[in-house]
Known about the structure:
This protein is an alpha+beta fold. The chain has a single domain (29-158), classed as Lipocalin. The protein has two helices and eight strands, in the order αβββαβββββ.
Amino acid sequence: MRAAVQVSIVVGLLIACQGCASQxxxxxxxxxxxxxxxxxxxxxxxxxxxxxVIKTLTKTHWAFLSQKRAAPxxxxxxxxxxxxxxxxxxxxxxxxxxxxxxTYTEHIDFFNAxxxxxxxxxxxxxxxxxxxxxxxxxxxxAFGLGDxxxxxxxxxxxxx
Length: 160
């Protein structure tokens, strides 16, 4: 009888621990609006007031979509100048992610800058109410996209 009680306690603790591990990921699930962003050095092509950025997370995957609020309109699918301007007004990426405590790692499967596909980027996350703050270093130098890496601070608010 005593062994059965001990086994029940161990099983109960294991189930509770599994719930705790998935709680962090489930807290992140949903769609998020980027409401504040700071980049050092500043990104000359990005001003948050000009862009709409959302990030969506499931239990295992993440994706972001970003488009200029006043994106240029196309008059033809064959006009390279218009297509280039439209491409510069849109960004996207996605893949899988892992969460270990406050370390959120994005494993990149798709990205508008193909240099990042197949890589992983780690971020520190914190919570303030229903807002999620992501900070860390976005690698640029190693991918030939800048003279130095970018310090990133992004604050997301859950879309209701």
